[in-house]
Amino acid sequence: MRAPHRDRRGSALAALCLALILIAAPATAQEAAVRVLPDGTAYEASITVTGSEHTFWTPGMLGERVPLQVEDLKVLGPAGPVEYQDAGRGVITFPEGNYTITYRAPVRDNRLVAAFDTPYAVTVDLPGGFDVRNPLIGMVSPGAVISTGPNGTTEVAWDGIRVVEVRFYTPEREILLTTFGTIWLAVALVLILPLVISRRKEGE
To answer: Do 32 and 122 meet the contact criterion of CB atoms below 8 Å apart?
Structure first.
């Protein structure tokens, strides 16, 4: 028995609406957890990956993709470590699937940069003694949410970002900046005050 034309048209319309909803639904960002080591010279990362390859890279001086050298690299599947192949230029390959990749990478001059091919939900944990809140000596990529964690740690998080940059500093550097600024302010007052007084006398 053939379905009425009206029923077929209704089914087609429902299928079209479902397809549009699936297309319009935003893809869930992969997750990356980054922890700066206590001495500030390197970071450990744990990222989720879906597919058969991953590229480790960092932006160059002109924004070009520069292969990133990583250490202690592990690809972990539901059943444990998975073998991977080094394809060169920061690319590793592995069987199609869902994985967690862990590795360690360097931090240079208190500046951390982590780059991904697709938007990631990224969390960067700074150990106690490091901060980013002073814009004169610290910075984070736009869109970050900064919060204080336990034991004086600082957490910086983004919902979805491809390239993360964090420049952190120590309390000693902030004290040095404050001292330097105070000295310059005192010098400026010493130089400007006599000029102001002489102009007032001339005005009288």
So the answer is: yes
Three-state secondary-structure class, residue 95: strand
Other CB atoms closer than 10 Å to residue 56's CB: what's the count?
21
For the chain, strand residue ranges (E) read 30-36, 42-55, 57-59, 65-67, 71-77, 80-81, 85-88, 91-106, 111-126, 139-140, 145-148, 154-167
Distance (Å, rounded) from C-alpha 146 to C-alpha 138?
12
**HSE on the CB side for 23, CA within 13 Å?**
6
One-letter amino acid for residue 53 of the chain = E
- List of the chain residues with pLDDT < 70: 1-28, 172-191, 193, 196-199, 201-204
CA distance 106 to 89: 17
Q: pLDDT digit string (tens) for 28-76?
A: 579 999 999 999 999 999 999 999 999 999 999 898 999 999 999 999 9
For the full predicted model, state whether its pTM sits above 0.85: no
Residue in 116, 65, 111 with CA at minimum distance from that of residue 89? 65
User: Among residues 110, 142, 124, which one has the least CA distance to residue 46?
Assistant: 124
Tell me which residue of 47, 165, 188, 181 sits closest to 109, measured CA to CA: 165
* 179 SS3 class: helix
